[in-house]
Amino acid sequence: MKKHPRALTVAGLLTALALSGCGDDPKPGDPSWADGSAKPAPTTQAAPPDAPQQAAPTGRAPRIPGESPSTPPFTMPKRDADAPAARAVVDAFKAAGLKVTNLRDRSADCGPDGAGLGCAELLVTDAVTVYVFPDEAYASNQTDVWGADAYRAGAVVLSYAGTKTGEAQRKRYNDVLAKLG
Q1: What's the CA gap between 74 and 85, in Å, rounded?
Q2: pLDDT tens-digit readout, 7-16
Q3: Sign of CA dihedral 133, 139, 141, 143
Q4: Greatest extent of the chain over all pairs of C-alpha atoms, in Å
Q5: Do 180 and 84 touch, CB atoms closer than 8 A?
Q6: Are the C-beta atoms of 106 and 122 separated by less than 8 Å?
Q7: Alpha carbon distance 131, 118 (integer Å)
Q8: pLDDT average, residue stretch 88-106
Q9: How far is CA 19 from CA 8, 88, 116, in A?
Q10: Quick check: pTM over 0.90?
Q11: In the chain, at which residue ranges do the beta strands (DSSP E only) sit?
Q12: How far apart (Å, rounded) are the C-alpha atoms in residues 56 and 68?
């Protein structure tokens, strides 16, 4: 088998490149450490995520992992004062003889830990889901996303996604909401 001088040269260069990254670590105090500190990073393992966190030596409170120091705290949006409360909508459905079985308050899902839709109130029943948004613009945008499975009156959106509510029943729910104004 005959060896080519060019192949040996390329192999020698690749070996030299691979080994060039295998040097000694910088000495303590050398400013070339990866984190920019003058000392080597500690080699202890991190505490488990559910362990209590201690304040950093700088006196600042510990941050939640992944949280930016410039991120303001989340506050739930408030419904427009002119919009009916989700509970008032559900009560109107009951008064009209419409089913509101298995009623659940899911308003916590409006925020970033839930669906993140930006609603102010959210009540779920087996037949319909009632969303109350901070204003009509939010409600209109969400209605556009849901299309035929939603009905909007002002800042309130009724969603029929995932329900077995027929067209005739949907119209009755929509009419009751329209009368609430």
Answers
A1: 22
A2: 556 565 566 5
A3: positive
A4: 95
A5: yes
A6: yes
A7: 10
A8: 95
A9: 16, 73, 50
A10: no
A11: 104-105, 121-124, 129-132, 150-153, 156-159
A12: 16
